[in-house]
Design brief:
The protein is of the alpha/beta class. It is built from eleven helices and twelve strands.
Length: about 325
C-alpha cells in the first residue's frame, strides 16, 4: 500500500485536484490518502505557508499529488515549491510533451540554477545567485541520459554556454555523462532550441537543461498540446516523487469552474508510470483523448464544459475501458 499525500494548494489547485484524485482512487481505493494544507491561503490564515508538521507529513509520503501555489511579491513570503523541492531533494523535474508525430521529455534540473533561493537586496540592486554544481549537474545528466537510453537514444542539451561559464560547465558535464551511455548527443543554445521545438517537435526525444531554462522551455512547449492546462510534471528524488500540473494557481479563473483538470489527471498517469503501472497510465491517457475527441473540453481548449464535467467524463471512459463501475467518491 502506498502513502499518498494530497496537497491542493491555492487558486485552481483545489478545483483540479479532486478529479485527479478520483482517477487515482479508481485504480487504488485501498491506498492511504492524507490531505495537507499549504500555500498562500494557508499563510494568510495562519502566518505559515508550510508548517514543520506539514513538511514532516510530506517527508513520510511515498507519493505527493500537488495542486498549485500562489507566490505573492511579499518579502516575508518564501516559495513553498522551492522549499519542498530542496527539503525532499526532488532533483529531477520531468515534463512530457507529446502529440501526433512527436514525443518529447524535458528533463529539468530542479534544485539549483537561478532557483537556488540564494538572494539578497542591496542599496540599489537585488541579486540572485545562479548555482551550477558538479554534483547537481552530474546527477541530472545521468538521469536524462538513462531516460534517453530507454527511449530513442538521443539527448539534446539546452544551454547558453556561449554567454555563461556556468552553462559551459553544465554542458561539459552533460556531454561526459551522455557519452558514457553511448547515446547520440545534440547541443543547442536555449533561445534557438525553444523556437526549433515549436517549429520541428519531431526532431526531439529527451532534452536536458538547467532549472529556469527548463521552466521556460516546457511552458513554451505547452503550445504544442493546446496550452498549460494540458501539461503535467513529475518531481523525482531518490526516495519520493511529487506530481504537479504545470499551469500554476491561475487566479484569474479561480472559482469559475472552468479550469482544465487534464494536466492534473495526467499527473496521475505519470504517477502510475512511476510506480510501475504503465498499462494503467496508458488507460488514463486514452480516456483523456476519448473525452477530448467527444468535444467535452474546457474553454481553454475551445469547449464549454466545466472542470467537473471533464473529470466525470474521463472517469466514465475509464470505467468503460475497465468494464467496471466508477467508484462513488
Amino acid at each position: 500500500m502506498k502513502r499518498v499525500v494530497v496537497a491542493p494548494g491555492d487558486g485552481i489547485g483545489p478545483e483540479v485536484i479532486p478529479p485527479a484524485l478520483d482517477v487515482l482512487k479508481f485504480f487504488h481505493p485501498d491506498w492511504e490518502y492524507t490531505p495537507v494544507y499549504l500555500g498562500y491561503e494557508c499563510w494568510k490564515r495562519t502566518g505559515d505557508a508550510l508548517s514543520d508538521k506539514t513538511l514532516e507529513t510530506l517527508r513520510k509520503a511515498d507519493l505527493i499529488l500537488f495542486g498549485a501555489i500562489t507566490t505573492p511579491p511579499d518579502p516575508k513570503y518564501h516559495s513553498v515549491v522551492l522549499r519542498i523541492r530542496k527539503e525532499l531533494d526532488l532533483y529531477a523535474n520531468l515534463r512530457p510533451v507529446f502529440g501526433e508525430g512527436f514525443d518529447i521529455l524535458i528533463v529539468r534540473e530542479n534544485t539549483e540554477g537561478l532557483y537556488s533561493g540564494i538572494e539578497w537586496k542591496e542599496k540599489d540592486r537585488a541579486c540572485t545567485l545562479r548555482v551550477v554544481s558538479e554534483a547537481g549537474s552530474r546527477r541530472i545528466a545521468k538521469f536524462a541520459s538513462a531516460c534517453a537510453n530507454r527511449r530513442r537514444r538521443h539527448l539534446t542539451i539546452g544551454n547558453k554556454a556561449n554567454v555563461m561559464k556556468s552553462d559551459a560547465y553544465f554542458l561539459e558535464i552533460c556531454m561526459e555523462e551522455a557519452e558514457k551511455t553511448g547515446i547520440s548527443i545534440d547541443k543547442k543554445y536555449i533561445d534557438a532550441l525553444v523556437l526549433d521545438v515549436l517549429q520541428h517537435p519531431s526532431r526531439y526525444d529527451v532534452i536536458v537543461t538547467t532549472n529556469i531554462f527548463g521552466d521556460i522551455l516546457s511552458d513554451a512547449a505547452a503550445f504544442l498540446e493546446g496550452g498549460l492546462g494540458m501539461l503535467p510534471s513529475a518531481n523525482i528524488g531518490r526516495h519520493q516523487a511529487l506530481f504537479e500540473p504545470v499551469h500554476g494557481s491561475a487566479p484569474d479563473i479561480t472559482g469559475k469552474g472552468i479550469a482544465n483538470p487534464i494536466a492534473a489527471i495526467r499527473c496521475v498517469s505519470l504517477l502510475l508510470k512511476y510506480v510501475g503501472e504503465r498499462p494503467l497510465a496508458i488507460e488514463v491517457e486514452r480516456a483523456i483523448q476519448k473525452t477530448i475527441a467527444a468535444g467535452i473540453k474546457t474553454p481553454d481548449l475551445g469547449g464549454t464544459a466545466t472542470t467537473d464535467e471533464v473529470g466525470r467524463e474521463i472517469l466514465k471512459n475509464l470505467a468503460l475501458s475497465q468494464q467496471k463501475e466508477p467508484v462513488d467518491l
